[in-house]
Amino acid sequence: MRTLVYGSLNIDLVFPVDHIVQPGETITSADPIKSAGGKGANQAAALAKAGMEVFMAGKIGVDGRFLLELLESYGVNTEKVIIYPGVTGQAIIQLDRNGQNSIILYAGGNREIRKDEIPGVLDTFTPGDAVLLQNEISNTGAIMEKAKERGMRVILNPSPFDDIIKELPLELVDIIFVNEIEAAALASLTPDTTPSQILDRLTVQFTSAEIILTAGKKGAYYGFGKTREKGEIIDLPVADTTGAGDTFTGYYIAARERRFSVPEALDLACKAASIAVSRKGAMQSIPFMDEVFQ
Fold first, then answer.
1. 180 lies in which domain range?
2. In total, how many domains does the chain have?
3. Cα torsion 238, 75, 42, 224: sign
């Protein structure tokens, strides 16, 4: 299976701070760090580092060429990325002393993807290939529809979650990756609802989709029909949570493609995400497969 990640590419500007700034407050940062990011790019890197054949599609400005060079160094094919005469997406990230983050996104090229570009991006993919989508680019619904017409599997990580998600043709989705907050919103439940209750709702709501729910230190949950499985994290010191969910997504897909069982795939993806959060940064913190198997 070839996987096309049609998603966001961002330039991340990380500001290390003592604590996340409060309304009306001014605080001082340590030296900022410029790095590669975007949920799409992070997930493509995770898939490649896990040994998958992966293609990246999206749109950047000339200021983002270094993103392509970095992805290519991990083995990602970037020939589907369009360079346009505008600005690459930006992420302003506050990273506190406990490794928690707060993020401001500027869409840039991510919201400049046009419907007429989609057929050309998908034209080399065939039935059995997969497209992995998030909610940081424009025309996601059109991509889903065109991918299904080609017989591709549709995998969705509806993050960041907003009202646009419920307007998408979600009946076309084969696998949904959500964290607790996203899952509760998708199921129209309160955030304090348990993962098991959320899964019960979502598996009825989306009868044709496998649901994978990540829950931080509580691990990850799987639901499809009446089937339920659970994966556990490994306990490592937290340095930076940025990209943890993206790492999990890439490794879970790779593990299932390698014929791992669902419980095995959940555990492997949880371990990969645990390693990622023990390191600073987003894309560069994602481990390679040989590190996860140590």
1. 3-8+39-87+111-292
2. 1
3. negative
